[in-house]
Amino acid sequence: MDFLSAMRISTSALKTNRTRVNVATSNLANANSTRGPNGEGYKRRDPVIESVPFDDTMNASWGEAKPYNGVKVSAVIEDQGPGRKVFDPSHPDADAEGFVTYPDIDPSHEVVNLMSASRSYEANATAIETLKGMAQRALEILR
Length: 143
Description:
By secondary structure, the protein is of the alpha+beta class. The chain has one domain (3-142). Helix content is 47%, strand content 19%. It has helices at 3-29, 57-60, 107-142, and strands spanning 45-53, 69-78, 84-87, 99-102. The strands form two sheets. The chain has a two-stranded antiparallel ribbon. Strands 3-4 form a two-stranded antiparallel sheet.
């Protein structure tokens, strides 16, 4: 694997994990919200991550196709579940029966998602720094 392909793979992972962090923090921040600016309740969000092949135009000059893949967030979907109902008749968003509907967000699950995305981001940032160091050393050898 060449330096550029490795760099592109790690860069795609950095972008994906940044989105994962943003989605998890948004879910955590809205765990106890009953309605947003549009008047609707917040729905838990999940990123859908897919593997994507790189355009092989850079590899075409070498005469061989390299099947390297990166990742990307293809969509961010909202949970379609009914939410979590809590009995609180004094709440301004309570329904006729006295129940308030909160998003179905488990804070511990979101913290685990956040930690996983954060660690993956750090690992890919370290990989990029390592690649940069290797390229710099290779250039020094050529001098």
